């Protein structure tokens, strides 16, 4: 009842969206105090005067780069702003486009946790970030057609859920695009079963219309050669990519890497797909030098110790295999498979289905398979991020779903909840077979010599060191063979190929975020003390990032640089 009243109250909207904080920040800024919206803004404000595009001769200007930054997600926004400064020093004309408010829903807020998008705070942060970075700043709010929202909102309210899924506007399949954004917003996979599912889906479709209307005008005004944006799967980026492709504008996508403090970049396709197929075809048969083998082993060992992970889920973990066996009541000598789930609403999980309808369909099928083989044990390791990241707890949880689907006893099935601090790496060492959909755990299992069955479109599928069934029947046959101890990929061959892939993936395709520091569980900070540190030939990694954006070169660390 309170939420419904609050949503209709203009005063609550103003207060909730952060207007008082923005006003206080503007007041404090007159006294050179900028910490209220983010210490990284204060970091940038303290820097000496940077080189500007106006100082570069007209005939030396190389390209027009547009950074799409719809949200005040600090790591992503600061990375874009910092790279934009490096590009300006290399002769690029850079600008930023932000939302500016006015959309009904966005990916920043959670459906049942936020009354409104926090537009005032988000807009103020991004506008100041652009100003401090020497960027021209466009807003969709100022460029969109006001009639788009008014004319289409009532129509969307009348459409049934299924019609929304197939909704198309100006040749843009916005209903399809909205699914990924709605899953993130609702923190579940099956948005039709969420109490805010239809509302969220319709809201993102309307957001897509407003964004398309404004972005079309921004593109016509700025006429970029390249667009740089996060991820490629959220509504704003999906719409921008379609509009850019129609105009022949090249797109670069980025995402935080699988290791802390790293970034993955790609040309033309969503970054979370982590597609390194072209490079893999080149290096697959190249033996690793001993020094590189040591380097990649060191990275893997750091991850096992929890030192390279983007998020820490527990202060301490139970890694003693004997204690884990006792806690899970695992019988001695029984063949053991460990199944690792993903967070169902994460963008890294979208588009990963192959011959199962979704990840939970795969989990259900696998449990049924093991129920037919009571002599085997199956441990389902539910991803800790479902509950262990404050503020991002999943609405739809795998453990709850298993309990609902299987109300009867599952004698040879053990489910490790996300709250249970059992070390996933210890489970990997205990497993005779690893079962994954799209989890990075499959890659780490393969490195340790454990046979891995991949049921989804993981980025390492089909690379020669995993078992990759093509149908559900094929899946059953592969799992049965492996549980009986019959493997068709030699252990030595599997480990060698997996190490080469890890070397490519972790050391050559993921770049250190040299322009910022990202302490675990803390907000990012600017990592340079003088803009001259962003000049060419000061940082090999930054040179590679800028060259890739400017010229379209592959974002890949040359092997000789390792």
Instruction: Going across the biggest sheet, name each strand in turn.
Output: 3-2-1-4-5-6-12
Whole-number total of structural domains:
2
Report the principal-axis shape.
Answer: globular
SS field, number of helical segments: 22
Radius of gyration equals: 25 Å
Q: Count the strands? A: 14
Low-confidence stretches: none
Distance between the ends: 60 Å
Percent of residues in helical segments? 40-55%
Taking the sheet with the most strands, its summary is: 7 strands, mixed
**Overall mean confidence score, pLDDT:** 89
- β-strand amount: 5-15%
Structural class: alpha/beta
Structure, described:
The chain is of the alpha/beta class. The protein folds into 2 domains: 2-261 and 512-561, no CATH class; 278-508, Rossmann fold, CATH 3.40.50. It is built from 22 helices and 14 strands. The strands form 3 sheets. A 7-stranded mixed beta sheet has the order 3-2-1-4-5-6-12, with helices on both faces. A 5-stranded parallel beta sheet has the order 9-8-7-10-11, with helices on both faces. The protein is globular, with a radius of gyration of 25 Å.
Short structural description:
The protein has 22 helices and 14 strands. With 562 residues, the chain is an alpha/beta fold.
């Amino acid at each position: 009842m309170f939420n419904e009243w609050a949503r209709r109250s203009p005063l609550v909207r103003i207060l909730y969206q952060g207007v008082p904080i923005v006003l206080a920040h503007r007041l404090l800024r007159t006294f050179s105090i900028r910490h209220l919206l983010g210490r990284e803004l204060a970091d940038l404000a303290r820097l000496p005067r940077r080189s500007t595009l106006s100082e570069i001769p007209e005939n030396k200007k190389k390209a027009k780069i547009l950074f799409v930054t719809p949200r005040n997600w600090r790591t992503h926004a600061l990375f874009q702003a910092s790279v934009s400064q490096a590009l300006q020093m290399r002769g690029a004309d850079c600008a930023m486009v932000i939302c500016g408010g006015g959309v009904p829903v966005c990916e920043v807020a959670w459906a049942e946790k936020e009354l409104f998008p926090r537009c005032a705070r988000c807009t103020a942060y991004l506008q100041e970030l652009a100003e401090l970075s020497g960027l021209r700043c466009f807003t969709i709010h100022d460029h969109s057609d006001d009639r788009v929202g008014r004319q289409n909102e009532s129509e969307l309210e009348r459409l049934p859920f299924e019609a929304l899924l197939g909704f198309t506007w100006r040749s843009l399949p916005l209903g399809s695009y909205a699914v990924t954004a709605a899953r993130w917003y609702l923190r579940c996979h099956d948005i039709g079963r969420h109490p805010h599912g239809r509302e969220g889906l319709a809201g993102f479709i309307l957001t897509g219309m407003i964004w398309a209307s404004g972005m079309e005008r921004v593109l016509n005004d700025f006429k970029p050669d390249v667009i740089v944006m996060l991820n490629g799967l959220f509504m704003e980026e999906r719409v921008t990519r379609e509009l850019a492709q129609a105009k022949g504008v090249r797109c670069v996508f980025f995402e935080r890497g699988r290791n802390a403090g790293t970034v993955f970049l790609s040309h033309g396709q969503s970054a979370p797909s982590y597609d390194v197929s072209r490079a893999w075809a080149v290096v697959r048969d190249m033996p690793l030098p001993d020094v590189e083998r040591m380097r990649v082993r060191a990275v893997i060992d750091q991850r096992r110790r929890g030192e390279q992970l983007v998020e820490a889920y527990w202060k301490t973990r139970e890694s003693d295999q004997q204690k884990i066996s006792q806690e899970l009541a695992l019988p001695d000598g029984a063949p053991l498979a460990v199944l690792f789930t993903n967070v169902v609403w994460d963008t890294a999980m979208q588009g990963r289905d192959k011959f199962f309808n979704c990840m939970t369909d795969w989990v259900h099928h696998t449990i049924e398979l093991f129920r037919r083989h009571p002599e085997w044990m199956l441990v389902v390791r539910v991803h800790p991020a479902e509950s262990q990241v404050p503020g991002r707890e999943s609405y739809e949880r795998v453990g709850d779903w298993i309990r609902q689907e299987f109300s009867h006893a599952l004698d040879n099935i053990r489910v490790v909840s996300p709250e249970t601090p059992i070390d996933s790496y210890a489970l990997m060492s205990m497993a005779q077979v690893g079962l994954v959909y799209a989890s990075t755990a499959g890659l780490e299992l393969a490195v340790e010599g454990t046979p891995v069955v991949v049921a989804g479109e993981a980025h390492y599928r089909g690379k020669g060191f995993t078992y990759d069934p093509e149908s559900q029947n094929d899946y059953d046959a592969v799992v049965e063979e492996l549980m009986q101890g019959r493997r068709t990929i030699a252990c030595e061959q599997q480990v060698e190929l997996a190490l080469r892939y890890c070397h490519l993936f972790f050391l050559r395709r993921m770049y250190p975020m040299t322009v910022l520091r990202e302490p675990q569980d803390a907000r990012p900070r600017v990592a340079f003390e003088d803009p001259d540190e962003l000049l060419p030939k000061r940082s090999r990694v930054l040179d590679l990032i800028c060259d890739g954006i400017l010229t379209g070169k592959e974002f890949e660390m040359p092997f000789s640089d390792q």
